[in-house]
Amino acid sequence: MPEHAEEKRDPGPAEAAVLFIAQGAYSGRVPTAPGTAGTLAGVLLYLAMRGLSAEVYSALCIVIFFIGIRIAGRAEILLGRTDHPSIVIDEIAGFLLAMLLVPASWYSVTAAFVLFRFFDIVKPWPLKRFQGLHGGLGVMLDDIGAGIYTNIVLQIMSVVLHSA
Fold this sequence. Notes:
Blueprint: H1 13-22, H2 34-49, H3 54-79, H4 89-98, H5 106-122, H6 127-130, H7 135-163
Helix pairs in contact: 1-3, 2-4, 2-5, 3-4, 3-7, 4-5, 4-7, 5-7
């Protein structure tokens, strides 16, 4: 083997766990649209969490956000690239935030999925600026913002539809 060639090795258990979480149970490894696949993983996690009290659901969103910052930052190092497309913990956290205090229904989940993907792709002001931040925080914040924008639209839609 040439001296300059790097030896490829399997990740250890800790590195494998980081990648498993950062890549949303490996949903982020799909070759096409990994962010969409990660959002679908977020939908599945939401469906598992939807029966929780608002307080517990909110606390878990906060925990996932802070774990996501740490895990995304470590995954960037392991993958050798800033905001690697396979890192989807940010989509998962953003989608969960999008559904915070939104009445649970297939309509709201579908609307949240479409709106969240729209805001995540378009990145309206100031979301695009968040990507300039370094490390896990930069990975997470634009999707958290997309989740906030989605949640606001869903809350407005809920009020308008229920008052009509």
